[in-house]
Amino acid sequence: MQYLSVCSTKVYFIILHITTLLTKGALFIFFNTTSNTDFKMSSTTYVTKETLAQMREELAQMKGPGRAAIAAAIAEAREKGDLKENAEYDAAKEAQGMHEAKVAQLESAVANSRVIDVNDMDLSRVTILSKVKITNVATKKTLIYHLVSENEADIKLGKISVTSPIGKGLLGKEVGEIADIQVPSGVMKFKIEEITV
Question: What would the CATH number be for the domain defined by 45-115?
Fold first, then answer.
């Protein structure tokens, strides 16, 4: 409990409450996610109605059947005897802590999500949720990317994050403009061919 000496009174009561609910493994996750070096302010995530619905569905799944499955695993491990030397129990409690951390992260993402109506988007410039057809100036290869939030990014589906180097470089550009994008291997030039939703 060396952390308590540097914590405020409010945080002390939160930690005290959490210690009654979670194992040391979960507390480690708690301290890691709230340390000064790792703390990250919540930021707004722009999503479509469909994506927000998927996020809420996943959250409901994690809170309902997900928690029930973990509780069952803990109960099963508890039945196996001495909890001090029960590795299965420790693993189940650690899984519970990680599960609850994921639930909290998803709850925060849902709470900070803002729905963008694709019908109201400005197609004169590249924005979040735009589909952009670009041509690599050097190789003449044409690519289509859908700019999305970090949570939705999936390069296999052509969805790139607006915080990625290519996403940042494309934001705000108009059709016909050349985007100079700094990537680890150097500077790539892409011509904006088309912007759609």
Answer: 1.10.287.180
Tokens matching residue 174: 């108009």
The larger pLDDT score, comparing residue 162 to residue 35, is at 162
Return the sign of the alpha-carbon dihedral for residues 44, 45, 50, 56.
negative
Question: What's the fold here for domain 118-196?
Answer: Chitinase A; domain 3 (3.10.50)
CB 71 within 8 A of CB 79: no
Q: How far apart are CA 151 and CA 140, in angstroms?
A: 30
Residue 76's alpha-carbon distances to 65, 81, 86, 94, in angstroms, are 16, 10, 11, 15
Structure tokens at 67: 């928690």
6: number of CA atoms within 13 Å, CB side? 7
Q: What is the pLDDT of residues 55-64, one digit of tens each?
A: 899 999 999 9
Instruction: Report how far Cα 1 is from the mean position of its chain's Cα atoms.
Output: 30
Q: Where in the chain are all domains bearing CATH 1.10.287.180?
A: 45-115
Q: Answer yes or no: pTM beyond 0.70.
A: no
User: Which one-letter DSSP state was computed for residue 126?
Assistant: -
Residues of the chain with CATH 3.10.50.30: 118-196
- As a whole number of Å, the CA-based R_g of the chain is 23
Tokens of 68: 């029930």
- Residues 117 and 129: their CA atoms lie apart, in Å, by 10
N-to-C CA span, the chain: 52
